[in-house]
Amino acid sequence: MSTDPALWSRIDALFAEVADLPAEAQAERLRAEPDPAVRAEVAALLDADADAGGFFSGLASEIAPGGLAPGAQVGPYRLAEKVGEGGMGEVWRAHRADGTFEQTVALKVLRTGDARRFMAERRILGRLEHPAIARILDGGLTADGRPYFAMEFVEGEPITAYAERNGLSVDSRLALFAQVCEAVQFAHARLVVHRDLKPSNVLVAEGNSGEGGRSQPPGGAPLP
């Protein structure tokens, strides 16, 4: 799968051009696209868009439009505690509550959004597989129409707090910062920009292999 930014710019432009057209007009425009890679990716995005109604219709037992609170159900997840809030929305520690399996996630509920754009964004964000970027696991819409992302929950602390608590040297701080820059560059190469990157969204987790920064992508979105 290509990660050429120019290619993804053409994919995004063609999807925006045909998304609201009737099915026959979409098919005609896709047949006219000479690049098979662009044609295939846009066709896949259109299929996801067409399936959005059925996907979201099952999200019945959701939060009330009044807001989020501990114990509320969002899709198959039950909210436990709020762990962050920003201009794009709120982040909650949540647990899967539909009985299929046990899982703790970071659930980001965005303030606004439409289903078509959300489906396209979720598809692209789902491709971000990098050791310093928390993975997107699931997504849907709340009862009042707000998109949500279920992400890998990272046990860690903000990068600035970690540096202060451990008295890191300038060289050690720069080494952590370099990891963040590498993750951001990886996302940008795939036409994804965070839009809410700040120390509280960059967590440092300590494990057997040492320390490493992990970026939470709650504000992520494809570049237009």
> What are the segments in which pLDDT stays under 50 over at least 5 consecutive residues?
52-66, 217-224
Fraction in beta strands: 25-35%
Please count the helical segments.
Answer: 6
Specify the CATH homologous superfamily of the largest domain: Phosphorylase Kinase, domain 1
Name the CATH architecture of the largest domain.
2-Layer Sandwich
Helix content: 25-40%
For the termini, the CA-CA separation is 20 Å
Integer tally of domains: 3
Q: Over the alpha carbons, how many angstroms does the gyration radius reach?
A: 19 Å
CATH class (first level) name of the largest domain:
Alpha Beta
Derived from helix and strand composition plus strand pairing, the structural class reads alpha+beta
Secondary-structure blueprint:
Layout: H1 5-18, H2 23-32, H3 36-57, E1 73-74, E2 77-85, E3 89-96, E4 104-110, H4 115-125, E5 136-141, E6 147-152, E7 157-158, H5 159-165, H6 170-188, E8 192-193, E9 202-207, E10 210-215, E11 221-222
Antiparallel strand pairs: 1-2, 2-3, 3-4, 4-6, 5-6, 7-9, 8-11, 9-10
What does this structure look like?
The protein has three domains: 5-57; 73-152, Phosphorylase Kinase, domain 1; 157-222, no CATH class. The longest helix has 22 residues, at 36-57. The two termini are 20 Å apart. The model is unreliable at 52-66 and 217-224 (pLDDT under 50). It is an alpha+beta fold and 224 residues long. The protein has helices spanning 5-18, 23-32, 36-57, 115-125, 159-165, 170-188; strands at residues 73-74, 77-85, 89-96, 104-110, 136-141, 147-152, 157-158, 192-193, 202-207, 210-215, 221-222. The protein has a six-stranded antiparallel sheet, covered by helices on one side.
